[in-house]
Design brief:
heterotetramer, A mainly alpha (521), B mainly alpha (113), C alpha/beta (155), D mainly alpha (115), A: 521 residues, mainly alpha, two-stranded antiparallel ribbon, two-stranded antiparallel sheet, 75% helix, 3% strand, globular, B: 113 residues, 2 domains, 4 helices, 2 strands, 4% strand, flat
């Protein structure tokens, strides 16, 4: 058996193994623990990359836990899909690659950033667990396992957000996130149970193949869409997000960005692969578009008036998720209209998928630069900063690149994905593109504010002793900067190799189902 | 690799923009090189002009804090921001409330349409 | 480095002027504003008011110099690039006028910085100010010649 | 009708849980409400797995009956219970820390992060 076939399991097992070995390893001292953290996340990155290559070359790869077929055949000839299955198509592999890059960068950053604190054994353990949960959400092909991985990542993130447990605000943020995500998970579980009760199956592909739209399915769809939209921070349910992002240690915030993208992945998987063309009405696509517009506009208008650097970036996460919902919602709207799909729908999906990659990279980088500022100055409030560009030239350089990318300044990658989204959503209604453009302007405005108040201006006496952050943290940022610059300078290459297979896999519902069922049970 | 990205209405070419960037950078640097270099260094001639006053040693005294940035924007949109900030109460049950209301709204409307 | 000769040949009679109010009653300042307004319009002569001494050729000072303004006036003068000329506008700047020997004065202006042209009047008419600035052009041309010679000797 | 009784119970419990979260101000009571919510979902899963007259799906104990109860919902419920246990423990420990830092467990007072 070729070991390439075990990649979907390996990508889960490596971080999970890291999570459980961490307490043992931290007995060996600081160095052993740091090496473990970096090595585990680097291995995950390598496996994610190989998995991505494998999926691109050989099509959808799936892995059955404890057997070679996912269904149990009874002597009577009846087949029941009971086994746990991991299914990785190009979209999942793409998301896992994004998540692994961010996890690696966050781990490199955390090595120095968390050096001054105790309890690092727990930190490493939870960090690996969060990575495992995040990647699990992306590779699983089973809706109940999706719930389990959501819970794993939620529980790990509660612990990590409240890691500085002597800070009251960290506890508060963690509690808010715990409460809302617990209620949300219950909705997801009830939806999974309802699907099981209806079809006797939990496998996403198998459910997708037999799904018939009825009242129950509609409610299930709403529960899943609402909860997953909450987990990735869409507008009326985003209030936990800036709190949690601002209070978590920075390496973790960087990873939380990828975790919210995993929830977005779940949302898209439900909408495109389980429901897909059987959705019937255009209500949910329009609701995704409306949620997207609302998150975009209100998120960024909250961000403009913030003066705490990570909180401001947290509100930007809300507004950037809006772009992806807009792009993917437009794609979902025209899913069963072949002509409109070829005209602009597929462009919208490409834009949305490309924006996922871009957003994960530059938002993680922005959070890392904010963390570098916090590490160097010990300050979070923009009012107390100024003139840091002279003291921290490398951080400033990387901040400028990330800020230009998130504001959609050409020639950076944010511009390319936003351009795809503008032009395709314009075809649906000009108003959508107008809101997206205004949001982009306000994004630029608020990052000009951050740049001007934190990095420019005269030096302050209170910041006279500030120095550039250590090399390991810089390397963590350089990884993400390289990803941004690569996607910026070679947009057509990135689109054709990275984005287009993922977008095609997302749209191709019958391919997703057929790879598992192999032409019927 | 350097090719164009077609958006359906037009295209985007990163290399054209980078070429433009270098041309613009060249002109900017050329203009800058035309500046006068005959001022007397170390005297008041290379000091900051601060309305004739002495420039404070500490930057703390002359920076505009971030809270004051976009003051006019915020003032002009006062009613909008009042509503928006009023929504962000920061109470945990309100956060859950918005979520449940959103889900309930979706559930009712998807059954109606 | 010394490309000064080249600069000095560019628009030799287009003066950029900055003003400094060293404690006047604002009468002279209003006349200066009237000078740039359409009726007198010194910009047709190539002159204009600029906001900072760093860009200026001529400094127009109004008012007797109060104690508070002494250092500031000196600093503004020092911050102007060479060659530079100073025009004192109004009687106060020339002699102190009604504030003569007042306890709060360090002036008149020529005790603080070298003045090249005095424009009298309380306040002077815009025509007088224009004439004063035109006289400053002569002074500046002489300074330029000196600087050119110095530059040639250096090279 | 009587067959649907578990689902009515589930609905009532679920609404009770949600209302408990909104109506009470005490963090401990909110944690209890979240547990009730979790329990209602667990009851839902267990009720789904029931087949009238079904037996356990193990061959040597199956007896005469040909209807067998699928073990999947039980497995799901057990997993969900374990997860609910973990989150409840985390919620309670967070509430403990909130009490330590804020000196109150009134949910309206815990709002330093806002705006």
């Amino acid at each position: 058996m070729n070991w390439n076939e075990h990649l979907p399991a390996l990508i889960l097992i490596i971080p999970l193994f890291g999570a459980f070995i961490a307490p043992v390893c931290s007995l060996g001292g600081k160095t052993a623990r740091n090496i473990l953290l970096v090595a585990i996340s680097f291995l995950t990155l390598i496996v994610a990359f190989m998995l991505w290559r494998h999926v691109l070359a050989n099509g959808i790869s799936y892995y059955v836990m404890g057997g070679d077929k996912f269904n149990l055949s009874l002597p009577s000839g009846m087949a029941l899909p009971v086994r746990i299955i991991l299914e990785v198509d190009a979209f999942s592999a793409f998301m896992a690659l994004c998540g692994a890059i961010v996890s690696f960068a966050g781990a490199l950053f955390s090595v120095n950033y968390m050096n001054r604190f105790t309890g690092m054994g727990r930190f490493v353990s939870l960090y690996c667990l969060l990575t495992a949960g995040m990647i699990g959400m992306m590779v699983t092909g089973d809706i109940f396992n999706f719930f389990i991985f959501i819970e794993i990542s939620s529980i790990a993130s509660f612990g990590l957000i409240a890691f500085w447990r002597d800070k009251p605000t960290a506890i508060e943020a963690s509690f808010k996130y715990a409460l809302i995500s617990q209620v949300g998970s219950m909705f997801i579980l009830i939806a999974a149970g309802a699907l099981y009760g209806r079809y006797n199956m939990l496998n996403m592909a198998a459910i997708g193949s037999v799904l018939k739209m009825g009242s129950m399915e509609k409610l299930v769809l709403v529960f899943l869409v609402g909860s997953l939209a909450m987990k990735c921070g869409t507008f009326p349910m985003h209030m936990w997000l800036p709190d949690a992002y601002a209070e978590a240690p920075t390496g973790v915030t960087c990873l939380l960005v990828a975790v919210s993208q995993a929830s977005l992945y779940g949302l898209m998987r439900v909408c495109f692969s389980i429901y897909g063309a059987t959705m019937g009405s255009s209500f949910i696509p329009w609701m995704l578009i409306v949620f997207g517009l609302a998150s975009m506009f209100f998120g960024v208008s909250m961000a403009v008036v913030q003066h705490e650097i990570k909180r401001l970036m947290g509100y930007h996460s809300v507004s950037q998720v809006g772009y992806m919902l807009l792009g993917l919602g437009v794609g979902l709207l025209v899913l069963d209209d072949a002509r409109a799909m070829a005209d602009y729908g597929f462009t919208a999906i490409k834009g949305g998928v490309f924006h996922i990659f871009n957003y994960t990279m530059y938002k993680a980088l922005l959070f890392l630069t904010a963390g570098a500022i916090y590490y160097a100055t010990g300050k979070k409030d923009l009012n107390e900063m100024g003139g840091l560009a002279r003291r921290m030239p490398y951080t400033t350089f990387m901040f400028v690149i990330a800020a230009a990318a998130i504001s959609g300044l050409p020639p950076f990658n944010g511009f390319v994905s936003k351009l795809l989204i503008y032009e395709s959503s314009f075809a649906v209604h000009p108003f959508l593109a107008v809101v997206a453009l205004v949001t982009s302007v306000l994004t630029l405005a608020s990052f000009v504010k951050v740049f001007q108040t934190a990095f420019l201006g005269p030096e302050k006496s209170s910041l006279a002793k500030v120095q550039e952050v250590p090399a390991a943290m810089l390397i963590g940022m350089v990884v993400l900067t390289a990803a941004i610059l690569g996607a910026s300078l070679f947009p057509s290459w990135t689109l054709s190799t990275l984005v287009e297979p993922a977008a095609r896999a997302l749209v191709d519902q019958s391919g997703y189902i057929g790879a598992i069922l192999g032409g019927g049970m | 690799m350097w090719g164009k990205v077609y958006t359906g209405f037009g295209y985007w070419d990163a290399s054209a923009w980078i070429l433009f960037f270098f041309i613009a950078a060249f002109f900017t640097l050329w203009l800058r090189s035309q500046g006068r270099s005959d001022y007397k260094k170390g005297t008041d001639q290379d000091e900051i002009y601060w309305s004739g006053n002495e420039v404070p040693e500490d930057g703390e005294d002359i920076t505009v804090p971030a809270s004051s940035a976009y003051w006019g924007f915020r003032k002009a949109l006062e009613p909008f921001y009042k509503g928006l900030l009023g929504m962000h109460t920061g109470i945990a049950t309100d956060i859950v409330g918005y979520y449940v209301i959103a889900v309930a709204f979706l559930a009712v409307f998807i059954l109606l349409v | 480095m010394m490309k000064l000769e080249k600069y000095l040949e560019i628009l030799p009679k287009s003066l950029w002027v900055t003003t400094c109010n060293s404690g006047s009653c604002n009468g002279c300042d209003i006349e200066i504003v009237a000078t740039i307004s359409p009726r007198y319009d010194i910009e047709r002569l190539g002159m204009k008011l600029v906001g900072t001494p760093r860009h200026a050729d001529v400094l127009i000072v109004t008012g007797p110099v109060t104690k508070y303004m002494t250092n500031r006036l000196r600093r503004i003068y020092n911050q102007m690039p060479d060659p530079k000329a100073v025009v004192a506008v109004g009687n106060c700047g020339a002699s102190g006028d009604v504030f003569y020997k007042s306890y709060n004065l360090d002036g008149p202006i020529d005790r603080i910085i070298p003045v090249d042209v005095y424009v009298h009047g309380c306040p002077p008419r815009p025509e007088a100010i224009i004439e004063g600035v035109a006289k400053a052009v002569l002074k500046l041309e002489r300074l330029r010649e000196d600087l050119k010679k110095a530059g040639e000797q250096q090279s | 009708m009587i067959g649907n009784a578990p689902f009515f119970v589930v609905g009532v419990l679920f609404l009770m849980g949600l209302l408990g979260i909104f109506m009470t101000k005490n963090l401990i009571k909110i944690a209890i409400a979240v547990s009730i919510l979790g329990s209602s979902v667990n009851i839902f899963l267990v009720a789904l797995g029931y087949r009238t007259g079904g037996t356990i799906p193990v061959h040597f104990l199956a007896g005469e009956g040909s209807t067998m109860v699928m073990p999947t919902p039980q497995a799901m419920t057990l997993t969900a219970i374990v997860i609910a246990l973990a989150t409840t423990a985390l919620l309670l420990s967070l509430i403990m820390l909130v009490w330590r830092h804020y000196g109150t467990i009134d949910v309206d007072e815990i709002r330093r992060l806002r705006g």
